[in-house]
Amino acid sequence: MKIRIAMVAGETSGDLLAAHLIRALRAHLPDAEFYGIGGPRMQGEGFEAWWESERLAVHGYVDALKRYRELSGIRRSLLARLQAGPPTVFIGVDAPDFNLWLEQRVKQAGIPTIHFVSPSIWAWRGARIKTIARSVTRMLCLFPFETEIYERAGVPATYVGHPLADVFPLEPDRQAARLKLQIAPHRHVIALLPGSRESEVRNLGRLFIDAAMLLAQRRPEARFVVPLATRETRLLFEQAMRESQVAPEKIRILFGHASEAMTAADVVLVASGTASLEAALLKRPMVISYRIGKWQYRLMRRMAYLPWVGLPNILCGETVVPELLQDAATPQALADALDWWLAHPEERDALARRFTELHQVLRQDTAEKAARAILSCFPAGLTTAS
């Protein structure tokens, strides 16, 4: 029997995660077919993309509403194709707003459905677990505390660890990172990561720049590096520098190299999100900040269950790094928080030890563990290589 695996991955992060999963599954199922919605990394692993994963990328509620008809059309067309030629299993990679609707209908057709990357129901929108229970044969969780939540709701779940923990070394080579970026060993270095999306850089770029310049007044020897992933975000940040009347030589903009910038830094100022987890895995002290529209922030706060938004604090279960959000995120407050880390090297060392423990918990060989969990969902009697 030909094994056919349908997948849907949204955005660049989902494409990368799914590509690693395809590679791990091929080790067990060398002749399997993979198809659905995916990006270039998945296609590099032999995936047949009926639509590109970037078609699913939306930025906030307004963009989602504007593109509802387009995305709904793609989803219904995909469902019709899957119903006409049922796959062996369906794997939804992230993109829960798109995938859960699809998974529910695919599951009703008798096809096992796996969702890879639990939605953050522990942070907000907890009622979504009822939809998940109807939609998912098995949930694959990146964080260890998530499985208990699903098991209480009757949803089979497997903890597979976080893929970044497999990629990042337990002991980052700070000297090599500084050498690569041509940064002197004795300099105080602050990495600024205002986000990967244009909306984030618009909201945080000027704020981060002003905080950096306040800190530079206290510590003239400090150097600032800003890794930006796209031309658009770079242009926005350069515009914010001009608005703040900051000379280009005061802040060094990098095209990419976020991991190297954080590894080389003494402290990181970072937008809340996956980058804060990356900083933790690189054992860097940080200050987490975020700003969004006022009405959106009020809505998010009303729906939130936890006292933190940053993954390092959530995973450690306490405030191990400061979070300065919305109105509390002022240039002065951010500069003070960054300066505190620079003035307390013993606290930086203690935090690095805490983050090393966290890293070891999250390092699980995620792709292989996920592949084995998926194989356990295959229909009875279907033989697989192991």
TrEMBL record:
EC number: 2.4.1.182
Catalytic reaction equation(s): a lipid X + a UDP-2-N,3-O-bis[(3R)-3-hydroxyacyl]-alpha-D-glucosamine = a lipid A disaccharide + UDP + H(+)
GO term, biological process aspect, one: lipid A biosynthetic process
Alphabetical list of Pfam families matching this protein: LpxB
Keywords: Glycosyltransferase, Lipid A biosynthesis, Lipid biosynthesis, Lipid metabolism, Transferase
Gene Ontology CC terms, in alphabetical order: membrane
Domain of life: Bacteria
InterPro entries in UniProt: Glyco_trans_19
Pathway named in the protein's UniProt entry: Bacterial outer membrane biogenesis; LPS lipid A biosynthesis
SUPFAM superfamilies: UDP-Glycosyltransferase/glycogen phosphorylase (SSF53756)
GO MF entries: lipid-A-disaccharide synthase activity; phospholipid binding
Described purpose of this protein according to its UniProt entry: Condensation of UDP-2,3-diacylglucosamine and 2,3-diacylglucosamine-1-phosphate to form lipid A disaccharide, a precursor of lipid A, a phosphorylated glycolipid that anchors the lipopolysaccharide to the outer membrane of the cell.
Stored PANTHER family: LIPID-A-DISACCHARIDE SYNTHASE, LIPID-A-DISACCHARIDE SYNTHASE, MITOCHONDRIAL-RELATED
Record family assignment: Belongs to the LpxB family.
Protein name: Lipid-A-disaccharide synthase
Native source organism of the sequence: Azoarcus taiwanensis
Origin organism lineage: Bacteria, Pseudomonadati, Pseudomonadota, Betaproteobacteria, Rhodocyclales
